[in-house]
Amino acid sequence: MTNAIEVTNLKKSFPQFQLKDVSFQLPAGTIMGFVGENGAGKTTTIKCLLNLLKKEHGEIKIFGLDHSEHETTIKEHIGVVFDELYIPDTLHATHINNILEKIFDRWDEAYYADLLKRFKIPFKKPIKQLSRGMRMKLSIAIALSHHPKLLILDEPTSGLDPIVRDEILDLFMEFMQDEDNSILFSTHITSDLEKIADYITFIHDGEIVFSKNKDELLYDYGIWKGTIEQSMELPEHAKIRMRKNAFGIEILVNRKEVNSAFTLDKPNIEDIMLFFVKGVHP
User: Fold this and answer.
1) How does pLDDT run across 236-274, given as a tens digit for each residue?
2) pLDDT tens digits along 112-126
3) Whole-prediction pTM value?
4) Chain center to CA of 72
């Protein structure tokens, strides 16, 4: 399987923060959820991928090409959605079409118009008069209308109501009907990723904690609950992170290393993130 994105030992430093040897791969034809708390490095990583920030060290390849050396070619095949629509708010959807058809060789005016109609986005209404949900739908329509092979999404469903979010997720799944298409989906809304992601990459304090197949991730971990005394019966090598709660403790464990006689709860992505961020080593 080829990779849509390959990041190897990426480093980028700021006075108060740094990306530390960030490495992950997004296989072509799959969706990767990119998760982490605010300030963990998700947007910084994405901006490095897009060459909006210059990396200090490491290698970034998109479609097997160096992201900087082949930037123009690569960006013809990428659609990007940020958490805001960074277009002058006096413009309307028709203005945007007239501008972007001159920028993208593959711009599809008919498809763009179809998406506007589907999303009920007015053709002539200035962006500043659109709701947040409408602005995000417009941003996604723009990203899709030059038929990209890769979508890079930075919090595209943040602040949207569940109905609008569901519409947008459906559109992403339609995009994935082409088996060559791929999505890197950075979000805080982990329930969205549980619906559509194939892989989860978790970044914390500028470092990748894990990058795994989602189903394997959710199956490999379990949550044990009890008292500190009871926890002594668990194999030490199976314990990954521990948290205190009102009734005792919770321990994230490697399910395969724990006897089936123990009762384990199935974690979700958010549970696993919280254990790694707020839990301690047992």
Assistant:
1) 999 999 998 888 899 999 999 999 889 999 999 999 999
2) 999 999 989 999 999
3) 0.91
4) 23
141 and 190, same domain (yes or no) = yes
Residue with tokens 């060789």: 105
**Whether residue 93 is found in the same domain as residue 203:** yes
Domain boundary at 166, 191, 213, which? Answer: 213
The total number of structural domains in the chain stands at 2
CA dist., res. 42 & res. 198, Å (int) = 18
Distance of CA 277 to the CA centre of its chain: 18
Q: Is 82 helix (H, G, I), strand (E, B) or coil?
A: coil
Q: Give the separation between CA 208 and CA 228, rounded to whole angstroms.
A: 30
Best CA proximity match to 202, nearest among 163, 146, 240, 259: 240
Can you say how many angstroms the Cα of residue 249 is from the centroid of all Cα atoms in its chain?
31
Dihedral of alpha carbons 140, 146, 148, 152, sign: negative
DSSP state of 266: P
CATH assignment at residue 13: 3.40.50.300
Specify which residues 25 forms β-bridges with.
6
Say yes or no: 90 and 118 in one domain.
yes
Q: Which residues, 6 or more positions from 67, have their beta carbon under 8 angstroms from its beta carbon?
A: 49, 50, 51, 60, 61, 74
